[in-house]
Design goal:
This protein has a domain at 41-125. It has helices spanning 2-24, 41-52, 54-57, 71-76, 93-98, 114-125. By secondary structure, the chain is mostly helical.
Length: 130
């Protein structure tokens, strides 16, 4: 009987610990959760443009007259006009190109990773600040 009580007590303590541990995990949907950092051109946009776009839209080549190697050139646009409309994701040609909604799609042979597209869209939606 004593052994059974010891086993039951241990089980109760273990389950209580599991419940407490489960309750201690932060939930991203909680109101107390830290907000995500606002998008940044230097942190989120420029590294992606450098990695995926600069071969065709950098200082050596500018297909369609578009140079994407710094903020001023990006905002200037190319032969077809501006590629970013600050605050307007739907009207920004760059977004249509990287989401492959507009032809020719960019980059032409592969997609940018979805998290990168999401951060660029968030940056445009937030006003496309430098």
């Amino acid at each position: 009987m004593r052994r059974l009580l010891t086993i039951l007590s241990a089980a109760v303590l273990l389950s209580a610990g599991a419940v407490a541990a489960a309750g201690a995990k932060p939930n991203k949907k909680d109101a107390d959760a830290e907000p995500e950092e606002p998008p940044s051109f230097a942190r989120d946009v420029m590294p992606a443009l450098g990695r995926y776009c600069e071969n065709c839209h950098g200082d050596k080549e500018q297909h369609a007259g578009l140079r994407l190697d710094n903020y001023d050139n990006l905002m200037r646009g190319g032969d077809s006009g501006p590629v970013i409309i600050a605050g307007d994701v739907k009207q920004s040609m760059l977004i249509a190109k990287i989401e492959h909604r507009d032809k020719p799609a960019m980059p032409p042979r592969k997609w940018l990773p979805k998290p990168i597209i999401a951060r660029i869209k968030a940056w445009v939606a937030a006003g496309a600040e430098p």
